[in-house]
Structures are given as structure tokens and as C-alpha cells.
Amino acid sequence: MRAISTNANLVGSLWMVAAMFGFALEDSFFKASTDTLPIGQAIVLLGATGALIFSILARRNEQSLLVAEVRSKPMIIRAGFEITGRLFFFLAIALAPLSSATVILQATPIVVVAGAALFLGDKVGWRRWLAIALGLTGVLIVLNPDSQSFTWHSAFAVIGMLGFAGRDLASRAAPATLTTSVLGFYGFLAIIVAGIIYRYWSGEPFVTVTFENGTLIALSAVFGVLGYSSLMKAMRTGEISAVAPFRYSRLLIGLGIGVLWFGESLTTRMLIGSAIIILAGLFLLWRGRSS
Predict the structure, then answer these.
(1) Crossing angle of helices 98-105/249-260, nearest 10°?
(2) For tag attachment on the chain, is the N or C end more exposed, with fewer CB atoms within 10 Å?
(3) Residue 123, SS3?
(4) Phi/psi at 284 (nearest 5 deg)?
């Protein structure tokens, strides 16, 4: 029995790393596409492409997208947080360094634990509250709001992270009967809405899509779908406490891509903040498992 559990945890961990690799590449190809595409248009195209892929997958698996569960209150709340998270995180990776946005995103599980305690009645002791405070301190260290180099573009990542945390909390109450394809389809529909909102707020004109930027958007959508599907497989394989820590592999992948692809530099503050966020998150996972 132990061998089976160990094997399941290994497989789940590999799926989690694959998911984080997919999400990191989704972010990278999207950022590259915004060099020649208006941000709002890029977001809309990414959402439409991803939704199309998931609709094809659902049809192939004979799954209906028009099910009553998607109109449930938790799903409506989830959609609102999804739109907020996607919009501001895409703005962050388009306008700010990919590495800093990736670091800030790693605080999502920390905020989820705090939100579960404040709004869902989960019991959180003083040690975990201390870890939450330390994790958020790590975010402030990365942001460095007192510095003259601080820009609100980096703060967009914080708003996006809070949106994703709200989405994850709402997902706890979402109907368990909804499949990965259905959840992914509506997740990418939320991206379309986010793009439309930003396009009309910014007044950006749409431009002609070229082969180059169209390919970047398509690759972003494909890796986003692969990341989402792999994440669902990871969370359904093995123990969550064994699989979840591998979420932080996204940090290493994102930092590597930021440096090697986009020529970004890693500051001492960013590395210190990253270490604090990861240690706080791992402690929360450990305490959650032992409680």
C-alpha cells in the first residue's frame, strides 16, 4: 500500500512540475506577443484560443459545456475573481519584469490560507499567522515600495495574485462534478472578458495579427491549456501535501526564463523576498498536514 502511495505522489509531483512549466511558458509567450500586439487584444486572443481548445477537448470527451452547475453562485464568484486575477497579472507580465511578477504570484497559497481562516472558518494558529505575515513581508521586499524605482506595474501582480487567491477559495465550493475541460473553458472565457474590459478602458485600437505574434498567442494558449490540465491531474494524484510544494518550481522556471529570454536581472531584494515567500508557504503546507 505504501509503494502505491509513494508512486502516486511521485507521479503527482511530476504533473505539478509539468503544470508550472506550462504556466511559465504561457506567461512568457504572452509577454513576447505584447511587443507587437496591444495588451487588450493579446488577452482577448489568448482567451479565445484557449476556450476553443478546451471546447474541442470537451466535445471529444462528450462533455457538455452548457451545464446548470456553471450558473451556481460559487462559479459566478469564481469567474469574478478569475477575471480580476487574469487581467492584472497579464498587465503585470506585459508591463513589468516577468521575474518579479512570478515571484509575487508565489504568495497565492499564503493568501489562500489567510482567506480560508477569515472567510471560510478554517482554524489557523499563531504559528501559521506568523508565517502568513512573513510571506506577505516577502512580497513587500520584492515590491520595494519605498524605492524610487518602484512602479505601479509591479503592484498589478499583487492585485492579480489576490484575484487568483479568491478564485482558488471559490473553487473549494464549486461543484465537484465539473470536469477539467469545462472549468478550463470558462476560465478562458473569463480571460476574454478581462481583455475586453481593458481594451475599452485603455482605448487601444486593434491591429492586424501577423504570423509571428499570432504564433506566440497560439503557443501561449496551448501551454496554458497543458498547464491547467496538468494541474488538475496533479491535484487528483497522490497526497496534496506531497504534491503542492512542487508549485514553487514555477518560481525557478520563471526566474530562469526572465533572465535567459528577456534579459532581466535578479536583485538581492528579489532573491531574499523569494526565499521568504517559499519558506513561509512550505511551513504553511507542513503545519496544515500535521494539524
Answers:
(1) 170
(2) N
(3) coil
(4) -65, -40
Alpha-carbon Rg for the chain, nearest whole angstrom, is 19
Burial of 75 (C-beta count, 10 Å sphere; 0-12/13-18/19+): buried
Query: Is the separation of the CB atoms in 85 and 190 below 8 Å?
Result: no
Residue 68: CB atoms within 10 A of its CB come to 8
Tens of pLDDT along the chain (291 residues)?
444 467 888 898 899 999 999 999 999 999 999 999 999 999 999 999 999 999 999 999 899 998 888 888 888 998 999 999 999 999 999 998 999 999 999 999 899 889 888 887 888 888 989 999 999 999 999 888 766 656 777 789 999 999 999 988 887 777 778 888 898 999 999 999 999 999 999 998 899 999 999 999 999 999 999 998 998 888 777 776 678 888 899 999 999 999 999 999 988 989 999 999 999 999 888 876 655
User: Taking the C-alpha atoms of 136, 142, 145 and 147 in order, what is their torsion angle to the nearest 10 degrees?
Assistant: 150
User: What is the signed CA dihedral for 90, 195, 152, 82, rounded to 10 degrees?
Assistant: -60
pTM of the model: 0.89
| DSSP conformation letters of 66-120 | --GGGGSHHHHHHHHHHHHHHHHHHHHHHHS-HHHHHHHHTTHHHHHHHHHHHHS
- d(CA 146, CA 170) in angstroms, rounded, equals 34
